[in-house]
Specification:
Layout: H1 3-18, H2 22-30, E1 78-83, E2 88-95, E3 114-117, E4 127-133, E5 136-137, E6 140-141, E7 155-160, E8 165-177, H3 183-187, E9 193-205, E10 209-223
Parallel strand pairs: 2-3, 4-9
Antiparallel strand pairs: 1-2, 1-7, 3-4, 5-6, 7-8, 8-10, 9-10
């Protein structure tokens, strides 16, 4: 193995060592998820919520046949996310954990901005990558306002900084209460490249904000 290849292997091992274990993140979520804490929820019509029929079935694709994922991609930071079904086309910035231990959200003043949690895998790598974004801000709907209206079979494209695009197919959308958020179910690795896209959802009160989170489950089906 050449010196450059050894260096790449060492860098990848260092990235993996620094990644936050999902068990730790899940524990934070179980104590009361406040992933996107700036949503106002004060519009005449609230954001759409997923139908019960959209609950994930990880065993099959929409057509009912077993899914075959393409080969996992190497590490590369997320750069842009597109969800054609709800007209999302937004830049992606890296986010980590804030001072309180929550997954940080992008700045709320930019409604068309998503965040990739860089404490986990990158989109297209083996494992579960996570992209978050606001459902709204004080001025109106934000980037993931329409997330709950997505359907199984819709596609999500994530441009990566290595010039590749990871294409994911949605196999489930569900809203979970912050209390008892199923971190293992949402974040647990299935041994293949997966994506979760998360925003606020459920009921809203001025005192506590949104009481849940909409989670989109998707798996890698194409890399180009």
């Amino acid at each position: 193995m050449s010196a450059s290849e050894l260096s790449e292997v060492a860098e990848e091992e260092e990235r993996r060592r620094k990644r936050a274990p999902w068990g730790v993140i899940a524990l934070v979520l179980l104590t009361g998820l406040a992933l996107i804490r700036n949503g106002s929820g004060e519009f005449d019509v609230g954001p759409p919520q997923p139908a019960s029929a959209a609950a994930p079935d990880s065993r099959t694709t929409v057509s009912g046949t077993f899914a075959t994922a393409p080969a996992a991609l190497p590490f590369a930071a997320a750069d842009r996310i597109r969800i054609p079904a709800i007209r999302v086309d937004a830049p992606v910035m890296p986010v980590g954990l804030d001072t309180d231990g929550w997954i940080a959200a992008p700045p709320p003043d930019d409604p068309n901005l998503a965040g990739w949690f860089n404490g986990g895998v990158s989109p297209g790598e083996k494992g579960t990558s996570v992209v978050v974004g606001h459902v709204d801000n004080t001025k109106g709907p934000a980037v993931f306002y329409g997330l709950g209206s997505l359907k199984k079979g819709n596609r999500i494209e994530v441009d990566r900084q290595d010039g590749r695009t990871a294409v994911f197919e949605i196999y489930g959308i569900e809203v979970f209460a912050k209390a008892g958020f199923p971190g293992d179910r949402v974040y647990g690795s299935k041994g293949t490249p997966e994506l979760r896209v998360i925003t606020c959802g459920g009921g809203f009160s001025k005192q506590n904000g949104y009481d849940g989170n909409v989670v989109v489950f998707a798996r890698l089906v194409e890399a180009r």
